[in-house]
Amino acid sequence: MAASFINFLRTLRTNVFGGSELSGRKATGFNLPGMPGSDSDTSYYCPCCETESPDFLNWNEEYKGVICPVCDSRPRHRLFWLFASEFRLFHPHYGSILHLAPEPMLKPLMRLTPDVQYVTGDLHLPAMDVRMDLTKAPFPDQSFDVILCCHVLEVVNDDSAALREIQRILKPGGWAWIQVWVEQSNLATLEDPAATSPGDRLRLYGHETCSRLYGHDYGKRVEASGLTFHAFPYAHDRIGPRMANRYRVEPETQLFFATRGQSKIDALMARQ
Ligand SMILES: [Zn+2]
């Protein structure tokens, strides 16, 4: 594993995009799960599987203690779970959810919205409902209320086409979780069409399957598709360093969303 990849995993900083409308907002009364007792500060807690563990598994020798040993959640999954729980993202009745490259530990969240049409999709993973290329999504316009797309856009060859497809298949009022890795030191997204070999991509982007390494312009790239971009400094604003360590999430990681028209995400922003 290249050191640069480890570094960019560690530098998912919220200040890339500056402050958010949620910064400084008041508490909503949400109680963080797994609050430690007086003698439990040395253990970790995974909100996805509600499990206490003395240690989490290593990604590698440099990025240690980040994988839940029970449900395999990574920091991004635990952060999204906490966010979705606090803001009851899946409590309304959504008609349809598209989950791309679906993470098993997140599926229980979908059970909170009754009678939903839940569709899984991926180009390579087995046992998907739909085997699909996101740049040519095989769905009619305005098909989904929610799209979950975590660490997918980095590996798509044409992310502009993928974002246009997300915009097309989202219903008005819909939202998409579009989490990506962002390199804090990159003002602009690093992307070289000539870098097609695994070796070149590993050298340039830190991972052999990535097609780019996003920079500060990620939000603008999203909005070029017609979507509205939102960045939530959730861990920084709501969790704090002590609990961030307990959940093994990066305190400065932002959650990234795209919306089409006025959505629940926009409403969260507007009420601050
Ligand atoms: Zn877990």
How are the SSEs placed, and which strands pair?
Elements: H1 3-10, E1 44-46, E2 51-53, H2 75-86, E3 96-100, H3 107-110, E4 117-122, E5 130-131, E6 144-149, H4 159-169, E7 170-177, H5 198-205, H6 218-223, E8 228-232, H7 234-247, E9 255-260, H8 264-270
Parallel strand pairs: 3-4, 3-6, 4-5, 6-7
Antiparallel strand pairs: 1-2, 7-9, 8-9
Bound molecules: zinc ion.
Short description:
With 272 residues, the protein is of the alpha/beta class.
What report would you give on this structure?
With 272 residues, this protein is α/β, with parallel strands linked by helices. It has a single domain (3-16, 32-270), classed as Rossmann fold. Helices cover 26% and strands 16% of the residues. The protein contains eight helices and nine strands. The strands form two sheets. The protein has a seven-stranded mixed β-sheet, sandwiched between helices. The radius of gyration is 18 Å and the shape is globular. The termini are far apart. The structure holds zinc ion (ZN). Zinc ion binds at residues 46, 48-49, 51, 68, 70-71, 73. Zinc ion is lined by residues 46, 48-49, 51, 68, 70-71, 73.
Overall, the morphology is globular
Small molecules bound in the structure, each named once: zinc ion
Order of neighbouring strands in the sheet with most strands: 5-4-3-6-7-9-8
Quaternary organisation of the protein chains: single chain
Number of domain modules = 1
Q: Helix- and strand-based class? A: alpha/beta
Question: How many helical stretches?
Answer: 8
Beta-sheet strand percentage? 15-25%
- The CATH architecture is 3-Layer(aba) Sandwich
Query: Radius of gyration over alpha carbons?
Result: 18 Å
Biggest sheet, in brief? 7 strands, mixed
- The CATH homologous superfamily: Vaccinia Virus protein VP39
Please count the beta strands (DSSP E, at least 2 residues each). Answer: 9
State the order of secondary-structure elements, H for helix, E for strand: HEEHEHEEEHEHHEHEH
Q: How helix-rich are the residues, as a percent range? A: 25-40%
Under CATH, the topology can be stated as Rossmann fold
- CATH class (first level) name: Alpha Beta
